[in-house]
Design goal:
The structure holds 3 protein chains of 3 kinds. By secondary structure, chain B is an alpha+beta fold. Chain B contains 16 helices and 18 strands. Chain B is about 40% helix and about 20% strand. In chain B, strands 6-8-7-3-9 form a 5-stranded mixed beta sheet. A 4-stranded antiparallel beta sheet of chain B has the order 12-11-10-14. A 10-stranded mixed beta sheet of chain C has the order 1-9-8-7-3-4-5-6-2-10, with helices on one face. Chain C is globular. The chains are: A alpha/beta, B alpha+beta, C alpha/beta. Strand 4 of chain A pairs parallel with strand 1 of chain B, so a sheet runs across the interface.
């Protein structure tokens, strides 16, 4: 007479079928006793007492324990094999039957395929985006609206609905966000950490999150609000919700806010909310005076780079230093050698940007250093460029402007327009520095260096023919984990003589230094 | 809940650029790409109205009430009587027709032919010519069958002397009616109106109607749900295939018919007539469906579709929450198999009230149970199941009483939700016969068609206008 | 296909939750909530309610096509299953609430004692007829019955005595020897404890002393329940808060009102293979504490010596 047992993991059968099952086992050849019970401590000791179990086994109450007693090893182990096979046999085959299935057509139908969905990402043409967002919210799902061209009349009720139901609406016109480590829309692959970001600007968000990664820290969440959120009509609903959520979020130690300066009433509400968060909050209202913001737990900064640096310092428990406007010493020799290459009449910077916030930050920085800067997105009305297709003195162009993107992909994806403009600037004897931004991450061009390098080399040839040299200054926004790899892209641009800085703000300062006093 | 999101795995439904769904997956997230297209054929106003209705608690509550009413019906066949006696508010010179309202001059050929036949049958005119003149004048009123609780296949003409089936919903007491099926070939419903047609109608009035009435009353009424449920297990979908259901009814009626004191020759002819017509049950099935759907009609705010019907020119639908309004679009052509000698060029556009069966969740919606039907369009049994599966996406629920063997005895999809039709762009599927475009030639084929989305879009526009949202 | 839930138990979240399928039976499945330790159950039945149950009545629905591990989620009141077109609309379902704690059953009353006796007789008949491992009578006859009966009889007796004396430690010690003991997904020992709690809750009414005992015993019992299966643990968890299945509650109600006792008893015993009978056993035993003389212990002298308990018969 011998006994043996087997444990079947996480198996539930109703009591009736377990009873029948034990009876079937007992009826097998050479089997005297059989029992199938949940492997609880009390059951195990009962089996030991009854002599069906040689010695106690560790209890695991959610598993099924089968014990059999039979005349010899062979019949006992055969019975156990058969028992396991019987239990594991699938009652009904739910498999494929060759019937075609309709792919999900609507958000509601999507929920039938993915019941635990908690988020809807909308990038339909703008005219349909509000309706899809409305459905998603009414179905209890959070929303990101990548779509633009959604009116404020549509945006406001959506955000009010979301706020009243404790749901998030990022956007409309929210190009990027990172939720739970997953990049959404145009976004970089950023290390996870303890800094939470809320940003009204897409490239602003990409710049701060990429720099946080570059500086060795990481983020919890990066919430995009869309460009209209901080207008007084909307009232910063999403930014306020974002601050609240990050304040409550245990994983977030430091909060970082990015936006153009909001309207005064919204600014007050945002700063009040930030002050109440009881966490350090770095505030980058691009173009606003940091001194008007800094107080208590609020840290006002001037550039996106300073914002990232401050957040990283705070996250590491260090004091926030006062950031300087000056160009770091490491760039001084680069400035000197660049200046030597330039002829006297080469006096101007030509900035060609794919990121709106990069363009805006550059205009601010260059105006401060050099005075008049023409742009299609100027700070002062009289500095609006008369003809966007032709540069005038210092000119900084946002090629992501609707004017340029009608009927063609965004310049972060399609480099043709920018490359043509690079050649055009190269022909101009007054061009000294061509200043660029390069944006990596999901959604962007998969190899920007390969797109830019031929144009840069061609431009250099054009200049050389006229016995000139051109200086290229750029910053690459991205991380090494991005599909394009930051270090690989930087290495290739450096090879063709492009001067690279860590951040867009530094690139602007470097360019200004080159054309400045000489 | 925002903070709750931070603790959960992000699972994204992606509407729009599919590359976003891919990059989410590449970075370890979960995403589902929708096969999205702008709802309501891109009409923004309707699209927004639809959005507001999705999961709106008031609409959901209204739909629960309407759907409950519809599902809890107990339709009983109670007897046969003349339309004049049976149908309340049927005027002495009134003719009922299929589909949404339509005036004489716009009617399709088969419907005009049937009206001429009905006028001759009633003796209101002596010949074709004067019948036509009478129809074109003001003396006769036309009304959709649906307005008086009735339904009729194809042209659906019901005149006061015609015998009609009477179906009563025991749950609420509402009544529904349908004419008796004349069989195939030259028949009034396809617009035929010669002497043989009129003779048959007269016989149906004098002999068939009273005989059936006697038999049904003798039985104390016939419960219809069990017959349909059983027929679904025997390969019928009770719209375009009624072979099993007709046999079931025949089985119920025969013994009692034999016990009546009618002349034996009459009984023999009645039995022969029923036995010779595989579609005999169709009109009963339709009246049964009408009784079910009327029980769900008239609930304010409800998006339950309570009728789909065609007059050969327009396809119309009604919803529970929009009262007597019809939402119409041009009647579609039917994709199907044509009898030898006929081609799509001979076909009239979709015609008849018989889509009431689909509205009630059988017919095309139960096609999975009736694979024979897909042969009309050269399909496979898998296609039949696929049609039924597709319909689950646009219905409010299922009818637990009607189960489908090839779908593992799943209950059939039931209760079309106009919102879901517009949101998904999945149009209700309909199995139907095809009439010749000219009067009197009869059925030239059978096949499958879809209800036009435009009808549902108009309904949503009206329902959305009526509903006032807070935001 | 979308199915409407007919009723849902008071302990089921209605609006929104995430879960995975924990187990699947012919006409029921259990869902493990993401945020909580306890299961909720989807039950196809015409009448059977659970505090953690979502009840549907649809015929023609095979739960066997669903497999454990599949994700399930409720959004805005609609429960949906991953890789299945099945969904259950929870909105509009009536909420079922167990009324056992409101009963205030008086076991001193003659009619209640009669109802008790009727049920006890039925129970033992049924157990003999079904040839179950546990026989209620055997619990109070030392060294009689199956090994399981013999093993469980001592803790049961001690559970009764300790509870009667308001001795929570003694009661818990006894419960500890019963948890997870016996056959089935909800082992017999657990079912007896669940029934026992139902008995206590039925009688406590507004008696503060008794309520305090039940609550603290329940709290500790939930801790002990880690030693048994997840499904069983869920029932114990609800039992500790006075929430029981409709069949057990109806029996408690029937004994309270002496109305349709036989019918209620038969329905309660019909649950599962032996679970129903074990729970009824527990219920009847529970009804014997705090009531001296009680049906089980007709005279104070009988206390502690279960052997004489059969005298009431």
């Amino acid at each position: 007479m011998t006994t043996s047992q087997r444990m079947i993991k996480n198996l539930y059968r109703d009591s009736v079928s377990l009873m029948q099952f034990s009876e079937k086992l007992r009826a097998l050849d050479g089997i005297q006793q059989a029992s199938a019970v949940m492997a609880t401590e009390n059951n195990i000791s009962l089996l030991v007492e009854a002599g069906l179990l040689a010695s106690a086994v560790p209890p695991s109450p959610n598993d099924l324990l089968i014990v059999v007693e039979g005349k010899d090893e062979a019949s006992v182990s055969a019975a156990l094999d058969q028992a396991e096979a019987m239990l594991k046999a699938k009652a009904v085959d739910a498999g494929e039957d060759g019937v075609r299935h309709v792919p999900p057509r609507s958000v509601e139908m999507g929920l039938d395929s993915m019941p635990s969905a908690n988020f809807v990402l909308i990038s339909t043409p703008g005219e349909y985006a509000a309706a899809e967002a409305r459905k998603a919210l009414q179905l209890g799902l959070h929303v990101m609206m990548f779509s633009d061209n959604v009116s404020m009349e549509e945006e406001i009720p959506l955000k009010q609905y979301a706020r009243d139901h404790d749901l998030l609406v990022m956007g409309p016109d929210c190009g990027t966000a990172i939720i739970n480590g997953i990049p959404l829309g145009f976004a970089n692959v950023v290390r996870r950490g303890d800094i939470g970001v809320v940003a009204a600007s897409g490239t602003g968000l990409q710049q701060v999150t990429s720099l946080i990664d570059r500086f060795g820290a990481g983020i919890t969440q990066a919430i995009g609000t869309g460009g209209h959120d901080l207008k007084s009509e909307v009232g910063g609903i999403t930014m306020l919700q974002g601050i609240d959520a990050l304040a409550k979020d245990q994983a977030t130690k430091v909060i970082l806010l990015v936006s153009k300066p909001p309207s005064p009433d919204v600014m007050k509400n945002v700063l009040d909310k930030a002050a109440k968060s009881k966490k350090p909050v770095v505030v980058e209202f691009i173009g606003a005076d940091p001194k008007t913001i800094t107080a208590g737990n609020l840290y006002g900064v001037k550039t996106l780079e300073d914002a990232a640096s401050a957040a990283v310092l705070l996250s590491k428990g260090k004091a926030v230093k006062k950031f300087s406007n000056a160009l770091p010493a490491k760039y001084k020799t680069l400035v000197k050698s660049a200046q030597k290459k330039l002829k006297k009449e080469q006096r101007y910077i030509r900035g060609l940007f794919s990121g709106g916030t990069f363009c805006y930050e550059t205009v601010l920085s260059l105006s401060e250093a050099l005075g008049k800067v023409y742009s299609n997105t100027p700070i002062k009305k009289d500095e609006k460029i008369p003809n966007v297709w032709k540069s005038l003195e210092h000119t900084v162009i946002d090629l992501g402007d609707d004017l340029f993107t009608q009927g063609r992909p965004h310049p972060m994806i399609d480099f043709r327009l920018r490359n043509e403009r690079i050649l055009q600037e190269a022909e101009d004897p007054e061009t000294a520095v061509i200043l660029l931004d390069v944006v990596l991450g999901y959604g962007s061009n998969m190899d920007p260096a390969s797109e830019l390098i031929p144009a840069i080399q061609h431009a250099q040839k054009i200049a050389a023919k006229a016995k000139r040299n051109l200086v290229f200054v750029a910053s690459v926004c991205g991380t090494d984990s991005d599909p394009q790899s930051l270090s690989r892209q930087e290495a290739r641009l450096r090879e063709v003589g492009v001067i690279l800085t860590d951040s867009n703000a530094q690139a602007a300062r470097l360019a200004a230094a080159i054309v400045g006093a000489r | 809940m925002v903070n709750k999101l931070f603790e959960q795995e992000l699972q994204v439904i992606n509407v729009g650029l599919s590359s976003f769904a891919e990059s989410i997956q590449q970075t370890g997230g979960k995403s589902l790409q929708l096969d999205w297209r702008p709802p309501a054929s891109g009409n923004r106003e309707i699209g927004m109205k639809l959005a507001r209705l999705i999961n709106d608690p008031r609409v959901e509550a209204a739909n629960r009430t309407a759907f409950e009413g519809f599902l809890s019906t107990q339709p009983i066949l109670t007897g046969v009587d003349s339309a004049r006696n049976a149908i309340p508010n049927l005027g002495e010179r009134m003719l009922l027709h299929a589909g949404p309202p339509i005036e004489w001059r716009r009617m399709c050929g088969p419907m005009q032919g049937a009206i001429v036949g009905a006028i001759l049958y009633e003796g209101w005119a002596r010949d074709q010519e004067s019948a036509r003149a009478l129809a074109a004048g003001t003396e006769i009123t036309f009304a959709p069958c649906h307005h008086l609780g009735a339904v009729g296949p194809m042209s659906g003409i019901i005149s006061p002397s015609m015998p009609v089936w009477i179906v009563k919903n025991q749950d609420r007491g509402n009544l529904a009616f349908s004419n008796l099926n004349e069989g195939l070939g030259k028949v009034l419903r396809f617009g035929a109106n010669d002497a043989s047609v009129l003779e048959r109608l007269k016989w149906m009035e004098d002999v068939l109607g009273p005989a059936l009435n006697a038999a049904v009353r003798q039985l104390g009424g016939v419960e219809l749900r069990p017959i349909i449920a059983q027929a679904l297990h025997m390969g019928d979908e009770c719209h375009n295939r009624n072979a099993a259901a007709s046999s079931q009814l025949f089985k119920r009626l025969t013994p009692t018919l034999l016990k009546t004191d009618l002349p034996q020759s009459d009984v023999a002819r009645v039995l022969e007539f029923i036995a010779g017509n595989d579609h005999f049950f169709l009109n009963v099935s339709m009246a049964c469906c009408k009784a079910m759907l009327d029980a769900g009609h008239g609930v304010e705010g409800s998006t339950l579709v309570t009728a789909m019907a065609r007059n050969g020119v327009e396809f119309g639908i009604r919803t529970s929450g929009t009262g007597d309004a019809w939402f119409t679009a041009p009647a579609p052509m039917v994709d199907g198999l044509f009898f030898p000698g006929y081609s799509p060029a001979d076909a009239a556009p979709d015609l008849g009230d018989s889509a009431i069966t689909e509205t009630a969740g059988i017919g095309g919606f139960a096609m999975g149970a009736a694979p024979a039907i897909v042969q009309f369009v050269g399909g496979t049994p898998q296609d039949a199941i696929a049609y039924t599966r597709e319909m689950y996406h646009i219905t409010m629920g299922v009818n637990g009483g009607f189960t489908l063997p090839p779908l593992n005895f799943d209950a059939s999809p039931a209760g079309i939700d106009a919102r879901k039709v517009v949101d998904t762009g999945i149009a209700p599927v309909i199995n139907t016969g095809i009439a010749h475009r000219d009067a009197g030639i009869g059925q030239v084929g059978a096949g499958i068609t879809r209800a036009p989305l435009a009808c549902f879009e108009q309904a949503i526009k009206k329902l959305g206008t009526d509903s006032q949202a807070k935001y | 296909m979308k199915i409407r839930a007919v009723s849902i138990g008071e302990a089921v979240p209605r609006e929104r939750f995430d879960a995975v399928i924990q187990s699947v039976f012919d006409s029921a499945l259990n869902l493990r909530l993401a945020d909580e330790e306890h299961l909720i159950a989807l039950v196809i039945s015409d009448h059977y309610e659970l505090p953690q149950g979502i009840r549907i009545v649809t015929k023609g629905l095979s739960l066997r096509t669903l497999t454990p591990g599949l994700r399930v989620a409720t959004r805005s009141g609609i429960l949906r299953f991953d890789s299945s077109s099945l969904s259950v609309d929870l909105r509009g379902a009536s909420v079922w609430k167990c009324r056992v704690p409101e009963l205030g059953l008086n076991m001193q009353s003659h009619t209640a004692q009669q109802a008790w006796s009727t049920t006890w007789t039925l129970l033992n008949q049924e157990q003999r007829h079904k040839n179950t491992e546990l026989l209620a009578d055997d619990l109070f006859r030392p060294h009689t019955g199956s090994p399981l009966s013999q093993r469980i009889s001592k803790p049961v007796t001690s559970l009764v005595t300790s509870t009667d004396e308001f001795n929570p430690r003694g009661a818990l010690h006894a419960a500890g020897q019963m948890i997870g003991l016996g056959p089935g997904v909800t082992p017999s020992g657990d079912d007896i404890l669940i029934g026992f709690l139902a008995g206590l809750w039925s009688m406590a009414g507004e008696n503060g002393h008794q309520l305090a005992f039940i609550r603290s015993f329940g709290r500790e019992l939930i801790q002990l329940a880690k030693g048994t299966s997840e499904i069983s643990r869920t029932y114990l968890y609800h039992a500790a808060q006075g929430q029981f299945s409709s069949s057990l509650s109806h029996l408690a109600e029937a004994i309270t009102t002496s109305d349709c006792v036989e019918e209620a008893a038969r329905a309660a015993m019909r649950v599962g293979h032996s679970s129903g009978m074990d729970a009824v056993t527990g219920l009847l035993i529970g009804l014997c504490v705090w009531n001296i003389p009680s049906p089980l212990y007709p005279s104070p002298a009988g206390r502690g010596d279960g052997g004489e308990g059969k005298d009431y018969l």
